[in-house]
Each structure stands twice: as C-alpha cells, then as structure tokens.
C-alpha cells in the first residue's frame, strides 16, 4: 500500500517534469537556441528525477544503496527511460528481497 505522502510526491514530481517540458516549449518556441541552451532544457527533467533519488544517498538501507549503485551504472550506459525503469525495478526487487 502506498502512503499519501509518497503518492503526492510522485504526482507533484510528474507535474513539475511536465511543466518544465511544456514551459520551455511555450517560452522558447520562437527562438533559436544554442547547443548549450538546448542541452540545459533536455537535462531539466533528469534533474528533477535526481532530486527524488538524492535522499537515498544518505540512506542506511543496503537495498536502497545497492539500487542506487545499479541505477548509476545503468545511467552511464543507457538513456533516461531504461535507466528509470531499471532503477525503479531494482529498488523494488531489492527492497522486497534484501529488506
């Protein structure tokens, strides 16, 4: 069972991610962006996701720390979507089996 605070966090993070995507498009749609500005706009949703997993850095739960390590390794090899999916799956499985 998911608690209300977790559900609210997920919904708010999804909303912020959506707003960064649509906000950038609406505000900058008639401008030509430099490569650097384009890279910043593409990295914004990833930064929001990082803010979600950052508390795991201070966790003492070995399952969370192992899932964080797996996600980090996967992120160096794959794109955003597979990284998120593998990170969520590994955290869920490790929490279930390791504790």
UniProtKB/TrEMBL annotation:
Keywords, comma-separated and alphabetical: Membrane, Transmembrane, Transmembrane helix
Database matches in InterPro entries: Brnchd-chn_aa_trnsp_AzlD
Residues annotated as transmembrane: 6-28, 40-59, 65-94
Keyword Transmembrane listed: yes
Record-linked Pfam families: AzlD
Official protein name in the record: Msl2426 protein
Organism of origin: Mesorhizobium japonicum (strain LMG 29417 / CECT 9101 / MAFF 303099) (Mesorhizobium loti (strain MAFF 303099))
């Amino acid at each position: 069972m998911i608690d209300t605070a977790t559900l609210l966090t997920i919904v708010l993070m999804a909303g912020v991610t959506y707003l960064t995507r649509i906000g950038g498009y609406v505000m900058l749609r008639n401008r030509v962006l430099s490569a650097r500005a384009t890279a910043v706009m593409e990295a914004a949703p990833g930064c929001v996701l990082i803010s979600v997993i950052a508390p795991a850095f201070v966790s003492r739960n070995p399952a969370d720390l192992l899932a964080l390590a797996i996600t980090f390794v996967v992120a160096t090899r794959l794109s955003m979507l597979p990284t998120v999916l593998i990170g969520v799956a590994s955290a869920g499985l490790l929490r279930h089996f390791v504790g």
